């Protein structure tokens, strides 16, 4: 499995409006569990985060969540995980998620998901890591983002080579070919 022992999943704290988002999250979590790949994520029990974690656990997998105290206090921390690490803030959360992961998968999500994706992408662009990054473009969800990034290249704000720092996969079947 290309020495990938743990994968960080960045995704929404909402299930989104299309059932395919939740279906894909569940399939991904199941695949991680069945293949003994540790799931690392933000520690939430809601939305795609909770769906993916629950599916991984149900499939016999190991899940580590990293959750800041203020989210635990809002009762969105998942307390059925193999390991729940409570940190002080979002910065510590992102660093711990990075430290524990060998690769990253971005499922549909909102501002927080984009923040996590762009931070890990920036770190790669700056040479801070060589870990694989996959955007799972479920039902074309990330098409507008990918177009915006091409627009940034066209206007000289993003080097074209930076588009090669991550891979776009349409779904789990395509991701499985990588492993």
The total tally of domains equals 1
- As a percent range, the share of helical residues equals 40-55%
Rg, nearest Å: 15 Å
Got a strand count? 7
Task: Spell out the helices and strands N to C.
Answer: EHEHEHEHEHEHEH
Q: Helical segment tally? A: 7
What is the overall silhouette? globular
Q: Main sheet?
A: 7 strands, parallel
What are the low-pLDDT stretches, counting only 5+ consecutive residues below 50?
none
Which fold name is given in CATH as the topology?
Rossmann fold
Oligomer: single chain
The proportion of strand residues reads 15-25%
Strand order of the largest sheet: 4-3-2-1-5-6-7
At the first level of CATH, the class is Alpha Beta
Give the terminus-to-terminus CA distance: 5 Å
CATH architecture heading: 3-Layer(aba) Sandwich
Mean pLDDT: 94
Computed structural class = alpha/beta
Notable traits:
179 residues; alpha/beta; Rossmann fold; seven-stranded parallel sheet; 7 helices; 7 strands; 17% strand
Topology:
Elements: E1 6-10, H1 19-34, E2 38-41, H2 47-58, E3 63-68, H3 69-73, E4 83-87, H4 90-100, E5 103-106, H5 111-125, E6 133-136, H6 143-154, E7 167-169, H7 172-178
Parallel strand pairs: 1-2, 1-5, 2-3, 3-4, 5-6, 6-7
Helix pairs in contact: 1-2
